[in-house]
Design brief:
The complex is a heterodimer of chains A (112) and B (114). Chain A contains no helices and 11 strands. The termini of chain B are far apart. Classes of the chains: A mainly beta (112), B mainly beta (114). Chains A and B meet through strand 4, strand 5 and strand 10 of A and strand 4, strand 5, strand 9 and strand 10 of B.
Chain lengths: 112, 114
């Protein structure tokens, strides 16, 4: 059974710092991995999707990497801003299955 | 507006009542999903659907019923609500199987069972 873990559960960093959020999964047979952002009281917004054949994806100040063999993904946020404060979740689509399994998220607070 | 909409936004119901949460998407996405989000548990998959008239159980399907007679709608029914079903429910859609397309979420329904 695929399990997705995100550590830490919460993180506070000063504005302007670069930071890394971590995601690990137990079964390396994944089809893709997505990173999402969730603001309080809102739904999830997809940030980046990495296909199983890819090593990384970039969008603006965000860079997501994928290491299937070790069951890990990271989301790198450059030059953090207060507006980046949110909960970040990763999710994996299991290869050969329609299910998409989520981690519990990392709550990020950027200190002005 | 195009997108995925959930209704109602908030719902309070009593134990034992039947309640239906609605989800509508305008993209003609094949796949639709229902998740519940609870503190300490994160997002858990309740049911999903690969196409009209095709549904399948997720991680926590007990106490829930779904149907999908039309591609754009995927209602979730709690047949006899229990307090443990108090949660925030999210509907999501995705273009199709075999494609690396992102998951799109609605804004959720906050359900309280008293």
């Amino acid at each position: 059974k695929q399990e997705v873990t995100q550590i830490p559960a919460a993180l506070s960093v000063p504005e302007g710092e670069n930071l890394v959020l971590n995601c690990s999964f137990t079964d390396s047979a994944i089809y893709n991995l997505q990173w999402f952002r969730q603001d309080p009281g809102k739904g999830l917004t997809s940030l980046l999707l990495i296909q199983s054949s890819q090593r990384e994806q970039t969008s603006g100040r965000l860079n997501a990497s994928l290491d299937k063999s070790s069951g890990r993904s990271t989301l790198y946020i450059a030059a953090s801003q207060p507006g980046d404060s949110a909960t970040y979740l990763c999710a994996v689509k299991v290869d050969g299955d329609d299910k998409i399994i989520f981690g519990k998220g990392t709550r990020l607070h950027i200190l002005p | 507006d195009a997108g995925i909409t959930q209704s109602p936004r908030y719902k309070i119901t009593e134990t034992g009542r039947q309640v239906t949460l609605m989800c509508h998407q305008t993209w003609s996405h094949s796949y639709m999903f229902w998740y519940r989000q609870d503190l300490g548990h994160g997002l858990r998959l309740i049911y999903y659907s690969a196409a009209a008239d095709i549904t399948d159980k997720g991680e926590v399907p007990d106490g829930y019923v779904v149907s999908r007679s039309k591609t754009e709608n995927f209602p979730l029914t709690l047949e006899s609500a229990t307090r443990s079903q108090t949660s925030v429910y999210f509907c999501a859609s995705q273009w199709g199987q075999g494609t690396n397309s992102p998951l799109h979420f609605g804004n959720g329904t906050r359900l309280t069972v008293t």
